[in-house]
Amino acid sequence: MSPHGTLYLLPVPLSEAPEALQTLSPRLLDRFRQLSFFVVETPKTARRLLKQIDHPLPIAQLTLFPLTRETPTTQLESLLVPLRQGHALGLLSDAGCPAIADPGARLVNAAHAAGFRVVPETGPSSLLLGLMASGLEGQRFTFHGYLPAPEIARNARLIELEKRSRSVQETQAFIETPYRNEALFASLCRTLHATTQLCVARDLTGPQEWVWTAPVSEWQRHPHPDLHHLPTLFLFLARSSGRGD
After folding, report:
1. What pLDDT, on the 0 to 100 scale, is given for residue 166?
2. Considering the domain boundaries, does residue 224 fall inside one?
3. What CATH number is given to the structural domain containing 218?
């Protein structure tokens, strides 16, 4: 224990399948096992993971602080108490890397403001894996997190993002709550231009992993993929007018 604690950002598996634990490096697993204080998105999910990785301490002896989008900003200070006491603190999301499309970003910001050391550990990221596998523009891209849920607002946002993508040749990436994946995919096929390149990256690192990139016109000719209740990353790149649009 040092005079000032360190906040460790701990990636977790993208899939709930047991084999997904293999995506966590020995270094990352060692870091998990060294910690006894964690800030987590869902305590039940975090406890299950800590059991799966054989944390050396009984789960009842670990301290888990919940942090959600509903957590008031005024409570962030209380989450930093272990750091002020000199303990190391781990931050983890329910899936993938913490603080990316995740409420943990607020804790990271608070830790920086308070002068604590922040250390990101390497691990699975759906954004980077999906971008790698998409074949789309990987130097200029924007991750938007979640799009609006209402259909009219969602379609308007897609039109806006497609114009931006075409103008600056920038890949647009986003995710959706798994039970709304198929509604979003249908909107993409109805709203985007036929030549826009669309990538669907489903269940990355999981047993139903599947990635395919094709023009929207080709997606429209094929049966829709099964995306129901499967974590999915969507990416698209609109062709510029100078490339046959």
Report:
1. 98
2. yes
3. 3.30.950.10
What does the DSSP assignment read for 97-147?
STTSSSTHHHHHHHHHHTT-EEEEPP---HHHHHHHHH-S-SSSEEEEEEP
Amino acid in the structure at residue 177: T
Gyration radius from the chain CA atoms: 20
Note the pTM of the prediction, 2 decimals.
0.89
CB atoms within 10 A of CB 178: 15
Based on the domain organization, do 20 and 41 belong to the same domain?
A: yes
**Contact in structure between 13 and 209 (CB atoms under 8 Å):** no
Give the containing element (helix H, strand E) for 45.
helix 43-52
Domain-ending residue, one of 101, 120, 139: 120
User: Which residues, given as ranges, of the chain have pLDDT below 50?
Assistant: 1-2, 243-245
